[in-house]
Design brief:
This protein is mostly helical. The chain contains three helices and no strands.
């Protein structure tokens, strides 16, 4: 995964912000935030955006 989706959405998702709030803080369109979140969810093979912020100790090991 590139650093862009993570840098755009990571901190906001971790704080439970909506895509509108994340976009407001990052000065980008909420649609762009939605695109980045969707991309991250697909690449990590999770079902919800909340699963993106699971602690590393709970995440399955790669491989």
């Amino acid at each position: 995964m590139s650093d862009r989706p993570r840098s755009v959405t990571g901190p906001g998702i971790g704080r439970g912000e909506s895509r509108h709030e994340i976009g407001e803080h990052r000065h980008i369109n909420p649609r762009a935030v939605k695109h980045h979140i969707t991309s991250m969810v697909r690449r990590r093979d999770v079902h919800r955006r909340t699963e993106l912020v699971r602690p590393a100790s709970e995440a399955p090991l790669p491989g």
